[in-house]
Amino acid sequence: QVQLVESGGGLVQAGGSLRLSCAASGRTFSSYTMGWFRQAPGKEREFVAAISRSGAPTYYADSVKGRFTISRDNAKNTVYLQMNSLKPEDTAVYYCAAEYGVVVRTIGREYDYWGQGTQVTVSS
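RE: above sequence
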């Protein structure tokens, strides 16, 4: 099992940047593929980015490609989401997720472990 704790959310103006972190417990973090998802009020949860166990390859939703970067530090048991050029439509609760195995997944229901989420609010 793995426990996930997100941090780094907050309020930022449009065009600004934030870096989210997701700290994982356990000794086998490098055995998990990791993903970031988000859910805006009144909307379904959507995929944002995912990363393989080694750090490559990575995958992004079209809506964030070129603006967001997912990365991980297996020595620190942490996955990051660097978010640049933020837009009001990026406002959501952001969740990290973990799935044991090799395949990098972009569908939320295929992830077994989830954090509690961190709020990101982008003002116009």
